[in-house]
Amino acid sequence: MQEKPLSDNKLSRRTLVAIALIVLVIPATILFGVFFLGDRRYYFISLLIIFYTMLPFIMVFEKRKPQARELIVIAVLAAIAVAGRAAFFMLPQFKPVVAIVIIAGLCFGAEAGFLVGAVTGFVSNFFFGQGPWTPWQMFCFGIIGFLAGILFKKGVLQKEKLPLCIFGGLATFFVYGGIIDLGSVLMFTPKFSWQALMATYISGFWFNIVHAAATVFFLLVISQPMIEKLDRIKIKYGLIER
Amino acid sequence: MMKDAFSTFHPIVNFTYFAAVLLFSMFFMHPVFLGISLLCSFCYSVVLKGKKAVRFNLLYLLPLLLFMAVLNPAFNHAGVTILFYLKNGNPITMESILYGLATACMFVAIICWFSCYNVVMTSDKFIYLFGKIIPGLSLILSMVLRFVPRYKAQIKVISNAQKCIGRDVSNGNILERAKNGITILSIMTTWALENAIETADSMKSRGYGLPGRTSFSIFRLDNRDKAVFVSMLGLIAIVLAGAAVGQNSMRFFPSLKLPSLTALSMGVYLAYLALCLIPVIIDTVEENKWKHM
Predict the structure, then answer these.
(1) Which pLDDT belongs to residue B1?
(2) Which of B27, B136, B152 is the closest to A66 by Cβ?
(3) CB A71 to CB B143 under 8 A?
(4) Handedness of CA B45, B51, B54, B58 (dihedral sign)
(5) Ramachandran area for residue B219 (φ above 0: left; ψ -120 to 50: alpha; else beta)
(6) Which residues of A touch B179 (CB under 8 A)?
(7) CB-CB under 8 Å, B140 with A74
(8) Is it the case that residue A242 has pLDDT exceeding 60?
């Protein structure tokens, strides 16, 4: 079953295809929006970009007919993240989701990281309520898992506490906070303006700090045992590294 | 409270309805359309959830609406009708106030529609609809939805076992309790992973992924569903035709300009009203049917 050695640090063709699609499709969508969508262009361009970015992952994943073991590992990790989000419902922003998504990306690759993140965003909103924010959360969680996977494969990120915590904190604050706040500006205000974005970033600053701190905290506490468990499962059952 | 009759329709009918009203509400910046959307979503949420919805709508959505209506003129200074100047010299225009009000209505209507969506489009319906397009992912979705309550139950089992040896979260001082809690979660995670692999192997040995396998579903598209579905598509077509000839939106900047009221635009408004009211109509008809039997 083991197709490649674990220490292979070349990006797979699938990853490159996904990146190319992202790079090509986004400008096309923006042009379409600017010329055809008129008044609602900001919100719709942004939503379409979010969908387009997630599409290649989903298509590639479905096309290669994933094995039952692979499906279920992703499902377990997503379920743990969802349960984690639900367990800390009384503490706003203090959630372990990003930490678990990063660990998933680290141990099972960029694609699995993305899927765990996106599925967690989607399913947890069955418990917390779906809304126009769902695609944004799916995308943000997903892309952080994806980044973690890629950076690990490229050797930038190691399975050690310090680099993980630094990456987790920065990713939560800038990637998650940055994109979610941008999303809420596009949702709440009809015309995009830099002042509105700045105002949102300033008012969301403490929320994002708390969220980043939560990620660092959870990575500090659970990253090593969690990685150990996942690696053990991988070795014990010979799961394929993709 | 009676059960919502619209929820008993085929998932494709439910999903098409919500996709249509959500997209139309997001797209059409026209006072009549926004009014219809806001009113119908309010009505339907009350039909679905009764008093709770009234309270939620008035307590949360109304303040949100007002807040957002105020937010826009603070950042947006376009428009020709200047009402007054702020202290920092920025003008407040009538156009930006009205535009803010319109977007606020739109946003609140969308939230309200989504609150109805959450009740009607349960996860099993979603998975049924998308199971054919994204089989892998929808299997993951249904597994995650199952795992969450299952893990909750398993945590209780583990915690009871730990209690027997004095290592539960209710034993010892606060530090020991936290430590015990982490141990329980750790046991839980290992169990979840091992159990998952077993489930996967069991799935494989029962032939998961082999060709020719069908999946069980309890949904059936009968005449009632077809009738509602076709009339819904007809109404959607009328609304889209209205959009194509520019009836469904208005200009806000630089100055306000509404499309003129004609027989055609009246028809489009009525079609949109009928579309949005479909579930409420179905529920009312159903209730009367039971009353007069």
Answers:
(1) 46
(2) B136
(3) yes
(4) negative
(5) beta
(6) none
(7) yes
(8) no
